[in-house]
Amino acid sequence: MRISEFIGLLTLFLIINPLEGFGFPPRYHTYQEMEEDLIRLAHEFPHLCRLETLGFSTRLGRAILGIKISDFPQIREDEPRLLFNGNHHAAEIIGPEICLFLAESLLGQYETNEEVKRFVDSLEIWIVPMVNPDGHWIVEQDIDTLWRKDLRDNDTNGIINLDYDGVDLNRNYDFLWERGVSEPSSREYRGPAPFSEGEICALRDLAERERFVIDVCYHSDIDPRRGEYVYFPWLWGNSRSPDYFHLQEIACSLAFSIPNDLNNGTYSYIYGRAEEGGLARNWFYYALGIFSFTVEVSRGYRPPEMRVDSICRKNLRGCYYLMRRALSSQITGRIYDATTQRPLSAEVRILEAYAPPETILPRFSDSIFGRFRRLLLPGRYRVLVLKEGYEMKMETVEVFLGRPTEIEIYLQPSGIEEKRRSDVKIQNFGLYYTADGRRAERILGKGIYFKREKERMKKIVVF
Predict the structure, then answer these.
(1) CB 202 within 8 A of CB 173
(2) pLDDT tens digits, residue range 310-346?
(3) Locate the Peptidase M14 domain: which residues (predicted)?
(4) Tell me: the pLDDT tens digits for 29-55?
């Protein structure tokens, strides 16, 4: 972005969102106040929440705090998990307020609001209000109220140099990271390597451990014209993500559930571009299959204090919609070893929403419960389950509006090493299946197989 363009946007931003003297507004939480609030909630509601230090910031070593809200917060339940996080970018201080407001609402209304009780009893909800505490410190100390990055010491001189230091945390994820900006002085500097920042490693490790079904990253933009939008993954060139229409449906409903600041409409929704290197939203979806959304809140970095509570209440509607959706239309189930009844971690493909690994990494059931979950539009889907050492299995499943479809899948051990050639999965006995689920027969000697294609037979030789 050119300096003249940035100054123009800043001027427009200040007209719409005056910064009330450029000091840090008392309504907004400092890092210390956020920490104190989370500790208070953990002490006040020990039966409903657990506070965890997820990692530490790169420069100042501040704790990255997350709070888990559930009816049994100390144990891992077989329930859908959601993540809400804010403040990847330091100046975007409305995100932590929404996250804290959500935590207070869930815990404070558990005994009086039946729907809130259902959410807490049926889900595991993780909230990370402040992903970038070092950068937030620069903003709250009024050193630079428009600071974006963390505080990595890029020039290793031991001094905080605002012209050169810092990494854009939302360009540090390992998805097309190499396309990001390599110049440390840039506001969008990607960092020296993917996941070089402790803040992002903390969120990555949490996501890999918890395998969320939905993630929301709260942002706000200096350009008011880009505010009040929900982004979902993705358009990559001219190609849509394999879950594009399922993601679009959720993004649309999420956006329409959040009233805008002027109360004359709602948020809008749009696909994000995959080519934007290092984004959280794209990595969450690509690496873990998480339905990840970016909510650009309000119109500007820092809405006036008088509007903060209203904005939080409006965005709470979006949070509650996502919780309902996590319990709604989907295919979910458990995968077991048919012999031992032991839960299995196996690859699960929804063939109507499948793409090869170079587009999105394979999705697996978890190893603890054998559980998988896929949010889907109502319709009929083919579920293909694969695991080395087991026979493939495919089932056709109907998804209904408003409720999950639950299935159990038992995989038969093959008892013999499996071999893969091209798109065909070969088992050295009896029957085998192609990757798209078509069944074939072994009818000749060892290493020679045939696949039926209409009325003729096609020979496949395994060397």
Answers:
(1) no
(2) 999 999 999 999 999 999 999 999 999 999 999 999 9
(3) 27-326
(4) 999 999 999 999 999 999 999 999 999
Secondary structure element (H or E) that encloses residue 408, with its range = strand 404-411
Q: Which of 124, 199, 276, 296 is catalytic?
A: 296
Instruction: At 179, list the tokens.
Output: 């396309």
Q: Going from the N-terminus, what domains does the chain have, and what CATH number goes with each?
A: 3-326 (3.40.630.10), 330-413 (2.60.40.1120), 417-463 (no CATH)
Least Cα distance to 245 among 136, 381, 132 occurs for: 381
- Does residue 453 carry a catalytic annotation? no
Give the residue from 35, 33, 34, 37 showing the smallest Cα distance to 45: 37
Residue given tokens 């395994």 in the structure block: 462
For 419, the token pair is 């071999």
The upper half-sphere exposure of residue 44, i.e. CA atoms within 13 Å in the direction of its Cβ, equals: 12
CA distance 458 to 424: 13
Read off the amino acid at residue 417: E
User: Of all helices (H) and strands (E), which one includes residue 236?
Assistant: strand 229-236
User: Model confidence at 258, in pLDDT bands (50, 70, 90)?
Assistant: very high
Amino acid letter for position 53 = T
Rounded CA separation 218/129 (Å) = 9
Q: Which residue has tokens 């974006």?
A: 148
d(CA 268, CA 256): 7
